[in-house]
Amino acid sequence: MVDNQSRIPVTIVTGYLGSGKTTFLNHILNHTEEKVALIVNEFGDIGIDDQLIEHTNEEIIEINSGCICCNVRKDLIDTLSMLAFSREEKVVEFERVVIETTGLADPAPVVQTFLMDKEIMEDFIIDSVCTLVDAKHISKHFEHKSEALSQIAFADVILVNKVDLVTIDELDILIKRLETINPTAGTYLCENSHIELDKVLGIYSFDLNEKVELNPHCFNEEDSHYHDDEITSLSIQESRPLDLRKLNLWISFLVQIQGESLYRYKGVLNIKGKEHRFVFQGVHMLFAMEEKSSWGSDPRVSELVFIGKDLNKKKLEEQFRQCITEKNFS
């Protein structure tokens, strides 16, 4: 296993058009003590964001001519490889990479880059996926812009921006809706994209292994429903131990059949005969499971969260219950 301490932390910043990403980047660059390498993705051939970012002594790299979530993902890998090499050779110095995706990007392929490429995995670790939400206008995008929903679904941290432009009642409705889409993300309110940086940097909220070590009880306990959104979440708790073989069979079957509809899924599992927690997490059709810290005196409760499109919650729960040790898998 690669030592997390030796890897370069990466913060992925997403958010729909006009949510305040560039202002947020400037906030990070102006207030962090870390040296940052910033990768800015522009959808067109001409870069605009680079002109809007306040230059200090950061390394700023633009990737144009497409979106790094699709046809230029190779450019992202090449850029990261170049940065890792330059850092090793002491050509450039930086302690963190921040990636800003275009407002039309699906974060999934960007995240998968750090889970699929062996060399990238050795050099980098995702610290968090941070999504900005425009409190004033996001509701208009929920019904027709799937990118806005997927960005929220993939977030570890949600920054609800421009809260000064909405009423308390409007904000309360929005927060509840965000929680139904992604109940495990940390949600913070802000104006002008300003937030305490310790809420978004150095938190390692994407890496579930790190998160469980820091806080074994890191999952929301309640199932959540919102009938209007195609992207929803399902939370499951179970105190009875699980059969590891049945669980592996089920998850393998699930990702083959429904992988493209599963945006994020993660959990802490109580496996029969094991004294340690098992942590699993996945993105679409990529998933991994690992034995982690001892349960000790903590209650042995399995907790799972699925975030995806058109989830059949009843069927998922039924299938999961078949993995309980006294049940028969079918």
Please summarize what this structure is.
This protein has 330 residues and is of the alpha/beta class. The protein is built from eleven helices and twelve strands.
What can you tell me about this protein's structure?
The chain folds into two domains: 203 residues, Rossmann fold, CATH 3.40.50.300; 110 residues, 2-Layer Sandwich (Hypothetical Protein Yjia, Chain: A,domain 2), CATH 3.30.1220.10. The protein has 330 residues and is α/β, with parallel strands linked by helices. It is 32% helix and 26% strand. The chain is globular and about 55 Å long.
How would you summarize the topology of this molecule?
Blueprint: E1 8-15, H1 21-31, E2 36-41, H2 49-52, E3 59-63, H3 73-88, E4 96-100, H4 107-116, H5 118-123, E5 124-134, H6 138-142, H7 146-153, E6 157-161, H8 168-181, E7 186-189, H9 208-214, E8 231-238, H10 244-258, E9 262-269, E10 276-283, E11 286-294, E12 302-309, H11 313-321
Secondary-structure element order, as H and E? EHEHEHEHHEHHEHEHEHEEEEH
Q: What is the architecture of the largest domain at the second tier of CATH?
A: 3-Layer(aba) Sandwich
Helix tally equals 11
- End-to-end separation: 34 Å
Q: Given the helix and strand composition, which structural class is it? A: alpha/beta
* Gross morphology: globular
**Major sheet:** 7 strands, parallel
Number of distinct beta strands = 12
CATH class of the largest domain: Alpha Beta
Strand order of the largest sheet: 3-2-4-1-5-6-7
Low-confidence stretches: 43-58, 65-72, 220-228
Radius of gyration of CA atoms, rounded to a whole number: 20 Å
User: Approximately how much beta-strand content do the residues carry?
Assistant: 25-35%
